[in-house]
From TrEMBL:
Identification of the protein by name: Fe2OG dioxygenase domain-containing protein
Gene3D superfamilies (UniProt xref): q2cbj1_9rhob like domain (2.60.120.620)
Domain of life from the UniProt record: Eukaryota
Organism (species): Penaeus vannamei (Whiteleg shrimp)
Alphabetized UniProt keyword annotations: Dioxygenase, Iron, Metal-binding, Oxidoreductase, Vitamin C
């Protein structure tokens, strides 16, 4: 069967990208998952790891009761980095601006994008399959006013800050996609349909690191701030197929 997946250069109508288009590789059309090759330079990935290293603590994730816990579901360390803090402002703000150009989404305002979450996995480090969207409890009281204001995690922009010598792939079992970590590459996918409903087929996980160490950085982009660029569509299951 002929593959419908393509690779292309992306300028997204942004003059900033005209002289250095992004290199996009489609990994899946439904759900829509792409990889941007060489999104960050080696110097940028090293600088981000340098800022994150002294701030790493045991990773936590949302547990069955809705609160954040650490468990064997996710065995990594994480640090949260906010763009506005002085020592990192230029690097992180530029990175977020580039994410905005690449995706057409708002990501810099605190209501649109979360702080960067940098994660480091040692040998055996993994993240069991999960969805990145979190607001699955039908009881609205389960969420804070701020969570209601931002909406759920519409899209994920995840940059690999390291190569991994063996293991450590990001896998989407339902979509049949495997992404091997490559320093500077970035994976992007939509967690929600255009309507805001969660797309179960975006379920993904991080395979155990077998040799070496793995570093990633997540920027989660939220739903409610995007309503001007991305209309909600007529049907619940309408999808985004950009960039
Ligand atoms: O490390 C990976 O490859 C995936 C990480 C992930 O899914 C997450 O942090 O939500
Ligand atoms: Fe995830």
């Amino acid at each position: 069967m002929e593959s419908r997946l393509t690779c292309r250069h992306v300028t997204a109508g942004a003059s900033y990208l005209t002289l250095m288009p992004l290199r996009l590789e489609e990994m899946s059309l439904d759900p829509y998952i792409v990889v941007f090759r060489d999104f960050l330079t080696e110097a940028q990935t090293e600088a981000i790891k340098g800022i994150a290293k002294p701030r790493l603590t045991t990773s936590r994730h949302r547990g069955p009761g809705g609160n954040f816990i650490s468990s064997m579901v996710r065995t990594s360390s994480t640090a949260w980095l906010r763009e506005s803090v002085d020592d990192r402002k230029k690097l992180l703000v530029n990175m977020t601006r580039k994410i905005e150009f690449a995706t057409g989404l708002h990501a810099l305002e605190s209501s649109a994008g979360e702080d960067y979450q940098v994660a480091n996995y040692g040998i055996g480090g993994l993240y069991v399959t999960h969805t990145d969207y979190l607001m699955i409890n039908p009881d609205p009281r389960a969420y804070t006013p701020w969570e209601h204001f931002m909406g759920d995690r519409f899209a994920t922009f995840m940059v690999y800050l390291s190569d991994v010598e063996a293991g450590g792939a990001t896998v989407f079992p339902r979509a049949g996609v495997t992404i091997w970590p490559k320093r500077g590459s970035a994976a992007f996918w939509w967690n929600l349909y255009r309507s805001g409903a969660g797309d179960e087929n975006t379920r993904h996980g991080a395979c155990p690191v077998l040799h070496g160490s793995k570093w990633i950085s997540n920027k989660w982009i939220h739903y409610n701030d995007q309503f001007k660029q991305y209309k909600c569509g007529v049907n619940t299951w309408d999808k985004q197929m950009v960039p």
